[in-house]
Amino acid sequence: MSEPQPDRQACHRLAVLRHVEEVSGNAAMTCRYFGITRQTYYNWLRRYEAEGRQGFPPPTSIPAGRARRASIGVTRNVPRAVSCARATDHGWRERGHEHAG
């Protein structure tokens, strides 16, 4: 059975690494060309040297912000917390923090 084809993200990362080796020979110039930081480049290089193509796992199907989203219970309590803060801070509207609606 053949090795699965790498996804687009892995192909991009491999292209960046190859560009340094085969074209420019200069990591800083390659990073500017591809619009990435040198730290990102060296992270990719370190993972590729340690794990090969498996160092670039396929992206997950979960959007990046989904894992950090607050739970529903916390989100529902935010308006209550803001209204409590406004009720106890009598200078709220005087400082220009009125509701814009």
TrEMBL record:
Q: Where is the Insertion element IS150 protein InsJ-like helix-turn-helix domain?
A: 12-55
The secretion signal range is none
Q: Indicate what this protein is called per its UniProt record.
A: Helix-turn-helix domain-containing protein
Q: Which organism is it from?
A: Amycolatopsis albidoflavus
